[in-house]
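Milestone M4 deliverable, item 7.
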Amino acid sequence: MVHRVAVIGAGPSGLTSVKACLDEGMVPTCFESSDDMGGLWKFKEVSEPNRASIYRSLTINISKEMMCYSDFPIPADYPNYMHHSKILKYFRMYAEHFKVLQHIRFQTSVKSVRQRPDYSRTGQWEVVTENRDGQEERHVFDAVICCAGHYTYPNLPLKDFPGIETFEGKYLHSWDYKGPEDMHGKRVVVIGIGNSGGDIAVESSRVAEQVYMSTRRGAWVIRQVSDNGLPVDMKYNTRFVHILFQLLPMNILNWIGEQKLNAMYDHTMYALKPKHRLFSQIPVINDDLPLRILSGSVILKPNVKEIRGSTVVFDDGSIVEKVDTIVFATGYSYDFPFLPSNTMYKSGHRVGLYKHIFPPNLEHPTLAVVGFIHALGAIMPQAEMQARWVTRVFKGLNKLPSNRAMIKAVEQDTKDMEKSFD
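Output delivered:
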């Protein structure tokens, strides 16, 4: 019988996981390495190693109606698209309302999670933690929920950029970007066209001499302010649209969506049109980028071929000289350094989890990962649903399929994902 549960991380996924444990009558202990809750949404002036990081102006690109937890609406006087400071306030209200705070141990980092010697019989785990004074503690838990997030380890693929070691200016990962203050009058190259790359290019273009945005594959760009001025997710993330996805072939849905986006601005004309179809990858959400391109303050470029001193050469042979700053908006690597490697099932290049939650190769379903999902929409309601299911599996109310069936499902999932990226 699962009774004591370790929850690793007090971000949005950790908070709802603690609450789900309490709902099922379990005793959760949440370990949070920083001095506050909120994870990614806790702004720090200086990025801290191995911790998610955001920039000063960040506003969420999902409306409050679509991002709140199901049982705790966001206050009516909060705006539809919230600044990170308001999101953190909302988490505090949630934690206080559901009495989550007394279960969180701050400034306590998890060093290792290991199966107990009697794991085969009990399914239990030994968790070693370290407090801010460097003191280690050992704990025994019946189950573990990992909510460490996936914006923690910046992916900086310098080897893909020949000559970076000769670069005379400053380069940084988007993880280290806090605001455009250092970009005044500078010539900036932003590499990558995800949501961070788009935001940083737009924001820095207001003060920089010139911003160039390098993209390997382009992107479909959608606007937050949709038809009639409604938030785009309220307009299109509806039951009716979900039913259409079940009834119509994907190529027709792609065609309809692409026509709609190109009616706002022609992605080919703007040099944005990607190789992939609209619904095979998560689009970029940015209202300002087209105007910045039209006004010439952001110039789109293909992939970087090489760097020579302060000169950047692109795949099409074009050259930009006197570059001061390069921002790598090149995403994140995923890692669970505190877990034993044999607990995590590798499927291709990714961590293979059944339904993106349970390692499919364990003897007992007493380890789960919540919030490790990159889907359309906010993480909060998704993590909430995941945590509810996890706690019901821990209690034995829901049963998982056999290891073999779960591994088969994970492999199929990996194949489907790779196909959508081709």
